[in-house]
Amino acid sequence: MPSATAPSSSDKSKVHKLQIKGSAKLVTEFFEYGINTILFQRGVYPPEDFSAVKKYGLTIMTTIDDQVKAYIKKIMSQLSKWMSRSKISKLVVVITSKETGEHVERWQFDVNHTPTSTSSKSTSGSGEKENSDPVPPNSAAAAAEKTDAEIQQDIQSLFRQITASVTFLPVLDGNCTFNVLVYADADSEVPLEWGDSDAKEVKNAEKVMLRSFSTNSHRIDTVVSYRLAE
């Protein structure tokens, strides 16, 4: 009679690490396209600075400005390393008025790790760092594994909602710029060119929770904060 041998704990560990790595790549890719989508939809840069690509079954606009592309790529390169080591708790995109210096919009993507969660400090893509609250335990850890198709469908739904957000978000007046904050564990190795920053909160903000999506290793919750037009 043929016999079967259960996988060793080290084999299981390798499978888990591969799963984490695959999920980290998927989430990092989502952030890259998400930042581009926010910049386009919110008019931070003119439409002619973007080109269309097909992703997640959608047409997504991505920047063709060399400086902006380089900035985002630098952030994603470091983010990918931290994500694969479960060092990230959130990524934030802040839109700021060039005229007044006020933060007018803040997109926060909370990263919950399954089955364990981590506490963190923040480091930003332009080089920011700050304390943040511990990530709450993810109750979905024991849920059935999701298929790639299900994950893609959830991401597609979130992108549709980001695009539709222009229906309730105030029109951004004047010229704006953006900044990216990445919250990483306090013991994370931080590149020399990155620096510390405050949370860049929007004063007297309205907040709207958007859709979430999850892989088999991460769950991303989304909230946008914005200043009401005066």
Task: Describe the structure in your own words.
With about 230 residues, this protein is of the alpha+beta class. The protein has one domain: 2-Layer Sandwich (Cell Cycle, Spindle Assembly Checkpoint Protein, Chain A), CATH 3.30.900. The protein is about 30% helix and about 25% strand. The chain contains three helices and nine strands. The strands form two sheets. Strands 3, 4, 5, 6, 7, 8 and 9 form a seven-stranded antiparallel beta sheet that branches. The protein has a two-stranded antiparallel sheet with strand order 1-2. Helix 1 runs parallel beside helix 3. It is found in: Nucleus. This is Mitotic spindle checkpoint component mad2.
